[in-house]
Amino acid sequence: MRLLLIEDDIALAEPLAQSLARAGFAVDVLSDGLEAQPAPVFTDYDAIVLDLGLPGCPGLELLRQWRAQGVTTPVLILTARNAWHERVDGLKAGADDYLGKPFHTEELLARLQALLRRAAGQARECLSVAGLTLDEDRQEVRLTNGEAVALTGMEFRLLRYLMCHPGKVLGKEALTDHLYDQHNERGSNLIEVYVRRLREKIGAGYIRTQRGQGYRFGALDNPLIKPAVNPPVNPTE
């Protein structure tokens, strides 16, 4: 999931961006309202964390402009302006959630995860699709037989994005745009590598290749879906 953090307090923005990255988000950081204005119009972010007291253009005005332009990206306002009437103004301007400063990072992460699950049409406390359940805190997936499988950071990002878009054909370029921030190098074959690794861990058939188009996360009733089989242990190793 690619996230845009708009915060002019560098002392807060840098460590927060690092915490969000450790939680499996690709994070772009901007600090100026004018610079941030076109960002969600030209980049398909999965969520935005928005401060209100920004130089250039206030956060509330930015939000109103985005909604008027048809930007539907979930927005969480993160601000020191936390009076009840300010929270009401933020929600009426189009925010999906509102969190006052000071805050606990764990609460921000929980709210972002809830926003993304709702955007994906999931009301449950965990992302669960096609018999697989994703533990976003542990970054592991529980298989249909109950086994918990640990994921690397990029495997977790990829599986979470696929599970948020079941049944949709997702091209490599679209996947890359949502899994990497603007500073990451994006090798053309990396998505193929991580898809192969995920298939080895969760079982063949969940991620189907649409030749010339991309990948599609399948449904459980797909007859191609088979449980993952752990490779035999070589006693000489």
Automatic annotation (TrEMBL):
Q: What Gene3D superfamilies would the database entry show?
A: 3.40.50.2300, 6.10.250.690, Winged helix-like DNA-binding domain superfamily/Winged helix DNA-binding domain (1.10.10.10)
Q: Which GO terms describe its biological process?
A: regulation of DNA-templated transcription
What is an example of a Pfam family matching this protein?
Trans_reg_C
Tell me which UniProt keywords the record has, alphabetically.
DNA-binding, Phosphoprotein, Transcription, Transcription regulation, Two-component regulatory system
DNA-binding region (UniProt annotation)? 124-219
Q: Which residues carry this modification: 4-aspartylphosphate?
A: D51
Residue intervals of the OmpR/PhoB-type domain: 124-219
Coiled-coil portions: none
Cellular component annotations (GO), alphabetically ordered:
cytosol; protein-DNA complex
Please give the name of this protein. Answer: Response regulator with CheY-like receiver domain and winged-helix DNA-binding domain
| MF GO annotations | phosphorelay response regulator activity; transcription cis-regulatory region binding
Domain Response regulatory positions: 2-116
